[in-house]
From TrEMBL:
Keywords: Oxidoreductase
Signal peptide: none
Record Pfam families: Pyr_redox_3 (PF13738)
SUPFAM superfamilies registered for this protein in UniProt: FAD/NAD(P)-binding domain
Molecular functions per Gene Ontology: oxidoreductase activity
Gene3D superfamilies: FAD/NAD(P)-binding domain
Top-level class of the enzyme under EC nomenclature: oxidoreductase
The protein's Enzyme Commission number: 1.14.13.-
Name the record gives this protein: NAD(P)/FAD-dependent oxidoreductase
Superkingdom, natural source: Bacteria
InterPro entries xref list: FAD-bind_Monooxygenase_sf, FAD/NAD-bd_sf
Length: 487
């Protein structure tokens, strides 16, 4: 099958791109989805307690505001329902091919198109927008003996909804954003819980509460009031950038986090285990009002000795102590340092994107890549955020993608690719902007840093500065050419 544009993935990034294309008058596109429904991470992550850590009114599309969010921080079911609503509201469900996993993509320079191989058949497309998601492929450590464990094992993103954890002995490995939601959600119901912590996270209070019906009604009546509320949230969160770029400014926020810890944990020994030894912001900042109180309960043990191996009946820590458990939950994050999609995307010479990146992903505006024409990445290198809603970035990228396609069409050229000098200048700007930030000078090792030590994950400035750059498409940044074989 031949189509002008293929979008891979139906999370926030893929849906933003599809809707922006349709609103711009582009009709010849398909979305390819490996699962049976839309939603990306908000479809896959349905573990107990799953919710967003950005306020609902900001963690949504600017072109599809929702007046009736039930809480300040929405839960997974509500966000998933919102995405399904957007699909139907903008009439794109009939453009989605479900249960079609992309297994290979090959660029054909002669015809100026991508050959996209999927489990539901093959496609030819002039453009491909890859909304693969940076948090879509679970990363489970290769622990010795894991395959021998007799109980239930799953990653936070593959939680078994049929599993009943009540009354059972739990082991949670990892203390990231998912783990701090899972632990307080299951702690009251399990007989015991052992939390294996490699590095203590910084945790701030979560100012969450139900949104009153009268305020929801106000937003229904006045879109201006809803936009004003969104702008206030946006502005407040953007102020965190000053702290990320100047770690000394984080000290006041660190004091808030420490007070939050001390207010919930009275045991000096447990406090010591839960006190981070790096600057706040170096790793992802977490928010929760229930995490610390859960860890203080009698049926919870925090182990910060690391994991040596797994046996048939439990988990052995680095000191050799065995804790017998009935199920193991991995809150160990995702494959961000080596994104799986990069291994099956090939340029005209047959070189994989993973080989071209050589352990350090680079792209112009985090979206287009030298050597891989007519290819766009949503949530690509350096488009992640540590302070606010990534939806803002995804919308800016989707807008850029539409403009690049239209730019090529107006020029009457089939192929468009960022110039090497433009991509190099953009990467130089990023590396320069990262110097002295909390991510590179905060004293921690995080998933933000790639194999070479570069922060190739985050945008190092205000989000509006990225959006401003993304609005412009010109011959200074992009090279245009014809296919070798006329269409």
């Amino acid at each position: 099958m031949k189509v002008k544009t293929i979008i891979v993935g139906t999370g926030f990034g893929g849906l933003a791109t599809a809707i922006k294309l349709k609103l711009a008058g582009e009709q010849d596109f398909l979305l390819i989805e490996r699962a049976s429904g839309v939603g990306g991470v908000w479809r896959d992550n349905h573990y107990p307690g799953c919710a967003c850590d950005v306020q609902s009114h900001l963690y949504s599309f600017s072109f599809a505001l929702k007046p009736d969010w039930s809480r300040e921080f929405a839960s997974q079911p509500e966000i998933h329902a919102y995405l399904n609503n957007c699909v139907d509201r903008f009439g794109i469900r009939n453009r989605i091919v479900f249960n079609a996993e992309v297994t290979r993509m090959d660029w054909r320079e002669d015809t100026g198109e991508w050959l996209v191989t999927t489990t539901q058949g093959n496609y030819r497309a002039r453009f491909v927008a890859g909304a693969f998601g940076s948090l879509s492929d679970p990363d489970i450590p290769a622990l010795r003996g894991l395959e021998s464990f007799r109980g239930e094992v799953f990653h936070s993103a593959t939680w078994n909804p049929a599993f009943r954890h009540a009354g059972k002995r739990a082991a949670v490995i990892g203390t990231g954003a998912s783990a701090i939601q899972i632990v307080p959600a299951i702690q009251p119901e399990v007989s015991s819980l052992v939390l294996f912590q490699r590095t203590a996270p910084w945790v701030l209070p979560r100012h969450d509460e139900p949104i009153p019906a009268q305020r929801q009604n106000l937003y229904r009546r006045s879109k201006l009031a809803m936009k004003w509320n969104r702008l206030k949230i946006y502005t407040k969160r953007e102020l965190f950038v000053f702290g990320f770029r100047n770690p000394a400014l984080m000290r006041r926020t660190q004091k808030t986090a420490l007070a939050h810890l001390h207010g919930a944990i009275s045991s000096p020994e447990l406090r010591a285990k839960l006190t981070p030894d790096y600057a706040l912001g170096c790793k992802r900042i977490l928010i929760s009002n229930t995490y610390y109180p859960a860890l203080a309960k009698k049926n919870v043990e925090v182990v910060n000795a690391g994991v040596r191996q797994v046996t048939e009946t439990g988990v052995v820590d680095a000191t050799g102590t065995l804790r017998e458990v009935d199920f193991i939950v991995f809150g160990t994050g995702f494959k961000t340092k080596e994104p799986p999609f990069a291994s099956y995307i090939f340029d005209a010479k047959g070189e994989a994107l993973s080989s071209a990146w050589a352990g350090s992903p680079k792209a112009y505006l985090g979206t287009t890549i030298v050597g891989f024409p007519n290819l766009f990445l949503l949530h690509g290198p350096n488009t992640g955020l540590g302070h606010t809603s990534v939806i803002y970035m995804l919308e800016a990228q989707a807008e850029h993608i539409v403009k690049v396609i239209q730019f090529a069409d107006r020029a009457g050229k089939r192929i468009i690719e960022p110039k090497r000098a433009a991509q190099a200048a953009f990467v130089d700007f990023l590396d320069s902007a990262m110097k002295g930030t909390v991510w590179t000078a905060g004293g921690c090792e995080s998933w933000y840093l790639d194999k070479t030590g570069r922060n190739s994950s985050l945008w190092p400035s205000f989000t509006f500065t990225f959006a401003k750059r993304a609005r412009h498409v010109s011959e200074d940044a992009y090279a245009l050419r014809d296919a070798r074989v006329p269409e």
